[in-house]
Amino acid sequence: MRGLRRWKSGRSFRRWLRFSVISSPEEAMMWGGLLLVLTVSVACITAKKARQGCQSIKMDMCRDAGYRRTKFPNRLGHRKQDHAANDAQYHLLDVIINGECSAHFKTLACLLYAPPCDNLEDDTGLPVYPCRSLCRAAKDDCLPWLEANGYRWPRIFNCSQFPDRREEKCNGHVERTSAQSFTGTCETITIPLCADVSYSTAGYPNHLGQGSQEAASLDAHMFFPLVKVQCSPHLKEFVCGMYAPPCDSQRNAPPLRPCRSLCQAARSGCEDWMSKFGFRWPGSLECDLLPTVGEEEDCFGHVPTLPPPTYPPAEGKCEDITIPYCQNLQYGKTRFPHAREDILDQQEASREIEHLFMTHFGPDCSPHLRQFVCHMYAPPCGSDEIPQLPCRSLCEAVRAECMERSWPESLNCNYLPPDDEAPCVGIVEPTEAPPSVSPSELLDRILRDYDRRLRPDTGPTTVNIGMTLRRILALNTKNALLTLHTWINMEWKDKRLIYGNTGVRRLEISVRYLWMPDIFLISGVKAEEMPLPLTTEASIFSDGTVRYVVPWTFTVPCRKRSESDWDCRVVFQSWNKPADEIALSPVEHFLDAEEYNGGLQWNVQSVSADRLITNVRDEADKSRLIFTLVVAKHVSEI
């Protein structure tokens, strides 16, 4: 037993072997076999250690992912499979996989949630991430399905966070090329919004999976108001590039997609305008999904980053500032002419300031307005010859807070220097910044003693209503009924919800926690369409303004005016509250008829709004708001 115990020590065995004498071939074969067994045993132990952590896949969504064993922890921090299966996003991933929207989505989800046991590892010993190309391929395929079924792209799959195969190791690369043959059709463009783009034919199905111009036109038309107000010079090119992509039938190649830089230029110019009225940039038009210049996939419409502006040597001399709005600044002199070559003197600058900012926007729309305006129109006259213009960030902040309809192209923020690239004036915050607070803490605070059963005011509560027509779905000329899809924008003030300057621009909250006006469509012809839908969230702003934007599809009666014209009325009224409690008022900038044009068959010639107080015997007087639409057939339809 002592001898056996000693031989368990490798050192003792080697010492014994060194001084042993092998006396016969049989003895040599015996010891050689023993050495082989020992070598194989050591190799098996080493391999077993290397496989530690590997386990059979038990997660339902990854049982047929193309491999049978996985290894934890994964890149999401899950240390066990049951942790991953109980993740908050897991159910949504399972729904998307069962929806079969993409052949790549399951691969993407399983590489992240249950990476294969033999997966590559990075320097930290964790599995490498899925490739960015795999994520984009899955997202491209699934976004139309997600939007059609009321889902959003899972937030954990932010494609920009995944590596590019050319830059670092990743798993699951997908080749994306436009060299494959095109099996769709090239058609002459008939979409009204895209009638004057630089090309004449479009390829279908388009980049959003729409198979016809009729379907694409209805969705593209929702951008008509944005194109009209010129929030970005790149918006029309981008929108048409997605909904009516340029097609070359001779090349027989799929239509090119817009470049990511074109999307970013369009989005940066218009997203603030959209959010001000409660709209979000569509997930199907996510810029990160689009190719960049230099990738394997070609694209069109690249917008180069503008270099910092260069200024010619200043001419003229410093002069005292005489513009009334720019008196008592930290500087008192300016120089004309300056970088705004269209403004020749202070009198002209003062007139434009009065027109744009005092009348159009209002002087109190932003705490940074005066700082921006005066540095733009009367920059300080310094010792150097470069005018100290506002920084791009200051312009964008004022634009987001003040823009009601359109932002002048002459004040395009992209033309101003970034904060870190040229001398410029940035946002000057108060010396004592307000304490930071999270949106959830703010909501808890303002709702602590809030009673949603009570109206905001002791006097009448004014509810401003705007109606944006998205589509005319049908005009039944036999029964004189108009069916239309709209977005309704409502605003009112609730002083109980004021939260002041906390650094939070707005709060999003379910309407079930708020007082809501009992607005009814009293001109509706279907009972189920008459109550205001309470299906989306409301926005609360720091001054107590509540904004509620909701889609509303309904049918209203019309009256024939002529052979081709119809007069249709959309009438809103509080159901229970009298006029001295709820007063309805129109939002004026929703009354531009041109914003309603672009339908395939019907055209809105004019729209107006009237307020009146009902006078019905034995009933309390009520405030009523009437939108009148004059609808006519397109000339080509007559």
UniProtKB/TrEMBL annotation:
PROSITE patterns, A to Z: FZ (PS50038)
Disulfide links within the chain: C135-C159, C186-C247, C194-C240, C263-C287
Domain of life: Eukaryota
Protein's GO biological process: canonical Wnt signaling pathway; non-canonical Wnt signaling pathway
The UniProt record lists the keyword Disulfide bond: yes
Keywords: Developmental protein, Disulfide bond
Keyword match Disulfide bond: yes
GO cellular component: plasma membrane
Residue ranges annotated for the FZ domain, each copy included: 49-173, 181-302, 313-427
Entry GO MF terms: extracellular ligand-gated monoatomic ion channel activity; Wnt receptor activity; Wnt-protein binding
CDD domains, per the entry: CRD_FZ, LGIC_ECD_cation
Listed name of the protein: Uncharacterized protein LOC109477846
Organism: Branchiostoma belcheri (Amphioxus)
